[in-house]
Amino acid sequence: MDSLTLPIILSGPIVRRAETTQITIWIATSKSYRIHAKMFRISSTKDTNSFTNHEFHTTCKTDTIQMGKQLYVHLINLTPFSGKFPTDTLLGYNIHFQRGSKLQDLNSLGLLSKDNPNSIVYGNLDYPTIYLNSSPHQCNVLYGSCRKPHGDDDDTLTAADHLLEKEFNHLLVRPATLFLMGDQIYADDVADSLFPVITKLEKELIGSREKLEIIDSRLENDPFQTSLNQVNGRQYIMENFCHFTSSNANNHAMKFGEYAALYLLSWSPQLWESIQENSLFNSFDELCNKKQVYFIFSNKERYPKETKEEKFRLKNRYTEHQEAMITFQQSLYRIRRLLANIPTYMMFDDHDITDDWNISYMWKENVKNSPLGSHVVANGLAAYWAFQGWGNAPESFDDRFHWLMKAYFQMLTIGKMEEYHEEWKKTLWDFDSWHFVAPTNPKAVFLDTRTQREYDTEPRPKKFGQLFEETVWAPHLLSKKGWENVTSSLFNSGWNSGSHLILVSPTPLYGMGLIESFIHDYVYPLQVLGVNVHTKVDFEAWKYNGKGFTEFLHRAASWNPNRCIILSGDVHYASAVKADISFKDGRILTINQFTSSPLKNMSFGGVWGLLMKQIMALNALKRKNNRIYRLCTSSYFIKKVEKENQTNTYLWKDQVSYQLLENNSIIETNNNLGFLKIRKRSLKNYLLNHNHKFLQ
């Protein structure tokens, strides 16, 4: 393949951590630059249709890490030269790039030109803008999760850009922050038509080849040496060499550059433009002619029927994936502009690394003890750090962490990945501070429910009718040590008891009870019949471990927030829940939970989807205008009770009510984006769809 000329800016700018004392901007480039940014205070004229810019003097420090031959990730940190950044007013910025004697900025690169489709400015503004809200009683938050390029239907994240486009100068309506709560990429579910592209981009971005055969020598031999780089060729490798359990792992990202390419392609249109200009997309038949598609039945003489059927099936899937990504590519101009104009905080869930990530103790041990599996997880974590985690909380990563990342990727770029490999991998696996507190107003604490799990060594019994007894291995999504780390981070952030608090949990604390109960009572016990439902159905909601659920409630209550809001995603439906919790010792906690999912990955299709929708309809009918009364026994069993039958023997009890949506249901299964307006006396939650209309 001829070398590609990659665009100067691969992705970004993306506004990340933003507060009155500092503003952090993330950007990825294909070449090394000295980068400097300037801030402006923006005022509107009397007619509000034109604006004046006043430079706000700042100190600028840019940290850069080279992660490949053509991949430089920069974190720009701006602090006021004196005083603080003003609140409740528009702040604009420009970024300057210097390479040798050549100077460029966002304007010369075409990003500030209103006639350029790549423009990242709104209206008559001259620069991309943000604002910092001053009051926890006047806060607008966008939130969502689960965005897959070839997911069904249109990309709902564009609704946020439409909203900012309309309200960019109306700060009572304009959202102040965006929370992305998991599955920003689908590393385990890469579209067939995208797979050849990310493998080519990996080579261009990194330079030297990431030698996976050093990690697992079986990859030196066929068929694995060949299938590793073929469409549909990785399922066996992921299952048997890595011990992953994703059912869609036939194109699973494995190399760091592949993970990086997925992020770059998820947030910016410019790499897509390069792909189109260089004709990197091929038809299915073209790939077959180049022997770039893996077929299980490759011997036409021996398996004529099977060969024909497999080729027909894969061609249809390839075409479906290709068509599904057309609107996704078109949406990226708006997505890029959105991310340049709103502080965005991000937390991983499983698909950012792999489906079922750490779903059970055995899963974690099997993968950790697999040289190739543990390496792939480390690649995913390194990519998460570079593209998401670093900007969330830069201070969480000390000098040693930075040095090791730079040293490892310097060696990877020149083909000597083994130099720091073991130390690099161990550091990423052992890191325990992916959680963070966002400096929003009110503050938001993001929980890491993936790497800080705790697993019961003695599973509790679960009966399936009168015929079977099964055991449940659902994990504590956050260990005791994990909660202690979160508590320490929260109070060290300056948050005080009695203040408002947002808790971001990728998985909802309160799910749809009937759905979860159906999975718990009828689906999971199918394992005794040989069905691997533990990983086919994500059996890892908070409620599946009563002790872990109770710990969540006790921790939240001990912090004593004035108002406790939980934002969640993951489950591929949206809902709004209010819970009033009473503890045995007399403490009371009220939780308002809002869930938004998916942004682009409608999942309730086919036979399974039809079944789940019927369950949801029954759920909505039972829950509508009713409260659910539950209590937790001393053995951490959570059970539903009638109001009049409540006893005094409990650890806690709650009253749960589900709020109706516009469709007169308690759930929304279409793609959606949450928009929460926090006011002194009210919480108003809306759902936006891809037509940027309110669903609630």
Task: Give a concise summary.
With 696 residues, the protein is α+β, with helices and mostly antiparallel strands. It contains 18 helices and 25 strands. Strand 13 and strand 14 form a beta hairpin.
Which descriptors apply to this entry?
696 residues; nine-stranded mixed beta sheet; 18 helices
Give a structural overview.
There is one protein chain. With 696 residues, the protein is an alpha+beta fold. It is 31% helix and 23% strand. The strands form five sheets. It has a nine-stranded mixed sheet with strand order 13-14-17-18-20-19-23-21-22. The protein is globular, with a radius of gyration of 25 Å.
Q: What is the number of E strands?
A: 25
Radius of gyration: 25 Å
Terminal Cα separation, in Å? 50 Å
Structural class label: alpha+beta
How many strands, which pairing sense, and closed or not: the largest β-sheet? 9 strands, mixed
Principal-axes shape call = globular
Widest beta sheet: strand line-up: 13-14-17-18-20-19-23-21-22
Write the layout of secondary structure elements.
Elements: E1 9-19, E2 22-29, E3 34-44, E4 51-56, E5 58-68, E6 71-80, E7 90-99, E8 102-105, E9 129-130, E10 138-144, H1 158-167, E11 177-180, H2 195-206, H3 212-215, H4 224-227, H5 235-240, H6 256-267, H7 270-277, H8 284-289, H9 304-339, E12 344-346, H10 361-368, H11 371-392, H12 399-413, H13 421-430, E13 436-438, E14 444-446, E15 460-464, E16 468-472, H14 480-492, E17 500-504, H15 513-523, H16 533-536, H17 546-559, E18 563-568, E19 575-583, E20 588-595, H18 606-623, E21 627-632, E22 638-641, E23 652-658, E24 673-679, E25 683-688
Parallel strand pairs: 10-11, 11-12, 14-17, 17-18, 18-20
Antiparallel strand pairs: 1-2, 2-6, 3-4, 3-7, 5-6, 7-8, 7-9, 10-24, 13-14, 15-16, 19-20, 19-23, 21-22, 21-23, 24-25
